[in-house]
Amino acid sequence: MNSPSRSAARTAPARLSSGMSRRELLALGAFGIAAGVPRWAFAAPQGQLTWGAHISLAPTWFDPAETSGIITPYMVLYALHDALVKPMPGQPLAPSLAESWSASEDGLGYDFVLRQGVKFHNGDPVTAEDVKYSFERYRGANGTTMKARVAAIETPDPQHVRFKLKEPWPDFLTFYGSATGAGWVVPKKYLEKVGDDGFKKAPIGAGPYKFVAFKPGIELTMEAFDGYWRKTPSIQRIVLKSIPDESTRLAALKTGEVDGIYWITGQLAEELQRTPGLKLAVSHTATQWLYFPDQWDPKSPWHDLRVRQAANLGLDRHNINQAIQLGHALLHDNAFVPAHFEFYQKAPPPPFDPTKAKQLLAEAGHPGGIDAGPLYCDAAFANIGEAMANSLREVGIRANPQPIERAAFYKSFSEKKYNGLIMGGSAAFGNAATRLEAFAVKGGAYAYGNYPDIDALFQQQAVELDHAKRETLLFKMQQLVRDKVIAAPLWQLAALSGVGPRVGESTLGSMGGYPWTSPYEDVTLKAG
Questions:
Q1: What is the DSSP annotation of 294-362?
Q2: Are 423 and 489 in contact (CB under 8 A)?
Q3: What is the pLDDT of residues 415-452, one digit of tens each?
Q4: Is 139 exposed, middle or buried (0-12, 13-18, 19+ CB in 10 A)?
Q5: pTM of the model
Q6: Of 196, 201, 218, 221, nearest to 210 (Cα)?
Q7: Average pLDDT over residues 453-461
């Protein structure tokens, strides 16, 4: 296996979402320039941090193998587990359980060297067999795509893993290290002993925090793992408390019941800003959109492009942004791809034009508007779903918001069980290709249908090693998504969080597009 600098020099660089070239990224991996290569010495962890989450935590998020195409599972993964490589502050992919990696000159092989002495929470060493087992066991988003491209996984010794690809694939590291959970490593021996269900009840990982207890619908409790390779966390206990109601979350923060909260909007966010000792943290994360799952059904009104165009023009994005996000959301005309992703194509947001929307509906044979049926949405964003429905109603598109608890919502979304309208969203790591694959390409985890011209472009870009040519192909795909109005973009969500007076370093906003407090080992409480 050749050095990454030599191998990358003989192929056109494929830039990742940080703007780093493939050569630069592989060089970082090879020389171990990571988020803390040595294991730092720190005082014993102390105190407890309690964070109010806007969702009910689900056991499926305790298992990396079931990682869906959303960012929510990483709220738990970054605490309980660790990956071969993963996004870290300032780095799109940082060496983690792997101290280095390299790529072959022909782009068909990736070698990873594991750190010495790294252990799971039960004391078992992290080995190459665990890495191979975790990849083969992975069944989450984009898993089929990944496995179809991998010819073999070799484990020549306990510290060495080699992935052999069937053909050069410029996005292998992006898929393996960020866009999927396939690179997060679980203990093979323990899982074979307890099984999948047993693992969800008592997960064991190699992350900075150990599982202590889980009360469904109430809270997850974790304690510091003093054997974590990067550094021992400074906080002894972290509790993630489920508080779905927004006003209740704010009240809990104001009384000190919790030290921080996720997802605060509108008047409550303004109230938080006025409260002494509390501060509002802003980071941009998920793209959110209105999806038309019935557009491929000739009998549905949504099969007519004019009806989808009407819905696109019927969303009053500016006023919804001001009312819910205090104007912090980013408005643009890119339904699926966020602005911080590599290969993102920037376009101005669609105008709010109710007159034109009504005209299009009339031209499509619906002068009185249409009854759109349910508008399914993540319950945590029910206020956004309601605002979208109210805006659409003004132009004659009558939809009824149906909030669904997050885990169940995305499960049914991926199983293609919804009709009517869907308020989709994703903050998953990756780039434009990984996001389009999940939502706009045949066989995608959340794609209810497909268009052959988009599929053809996706296949072309997937093997294109020239960065400029690949960008052109991905830009064409994004333009087609826009022209066909596969989905009407809403915005790139501003993740508004509340931080209380006891928190020192929250790490909120430390990673591009990531809304949670991670890395957990870097979170601190103020002294005293």
A1: TTT-TTSGGGSHHHHHHHHHT--HHHHHHHHHTT-SBP-S-SS--TTSTT----PPPP--HHHHHHHHH
A2: no
A3: 999 999 999 999 988 999 999 999 999 999 999 999 99
A4: middle
A5: 0.84
A6: 221
A7: 97
